[in-house]
Amino acid sequence: MDNKQNIYRILDANINRAREGLRVLEDVARFILNDRKTTARLRSCRHLLDQSAREIYPQLLSARDSGDDLGRTFKEPKRKDLLGLTAANFKRVEEAVRVLEEFAKLFGARQGSRFKKIRFTMYQVEKKLIQGIGIT
Q1: Which residues, including other chains, have CB under 8 Å from residue 115's CB and lie 6 or more apart?
Q2: What is the dihedral of CA 102, 105, 106, 109, to 10 degrees?
């Protein structure tokens, strides 16, 4: 695989990681906190990621190598409670979006700024959602 294919592979893995984490957070906001506004913000971020992925879907799919991905064998830590689950998924999304932001800059500044917007939205929503759980 050449460098361009490897970059698409990185983008694919991190788009998937971010969307999966966002779905978990969206369900916390929707079903546990019954928070319509936060659910809508998380859903909007997930759809923005989906839109970004659709623009380059053939390249992402072509570069995907999940069968040989070293990450397949990484152990996932157990979650002690709702706070731990929620915090872990916020970190998953924030880290994945940061990776997307950096690698997207290789394709142009505009692409990177889209992910930066999502990342800063996550920082705001994280505080609200964690406080909503009633732990902090």
Answers
A1: 52, 97, 98, 100, 101, 104
A2: -170
| Of 31-45, 77-91, 103-117, minimum mean pLDDT range | 103-117
Beta-carbon count within 10 A of 25 CB: 27
**Which of these, 63, 132, 40, 49, lies nearest to 92 by C-alpha position?**
49
Please state the pTM of the whole predicted model: 0.90
Q: How far is CA 125 from CA 25, 29, 96, 113, 118, in A?
A: 10, 10, 16, 18, 10
- Which pLDDT value is given to residue 135? 62
Q: Where are the domains of the chain?
A: 3-64+78-133
* Eight-state DSSP code of residue 81: S
Q: How does pLDDT run across 79-98, given as a tens digit for each residue?
A: 899 999 999 999 999 999 99
DSSP code of 76?
Answer: P
Contact (CB, 8 A) for 111 and 29: no
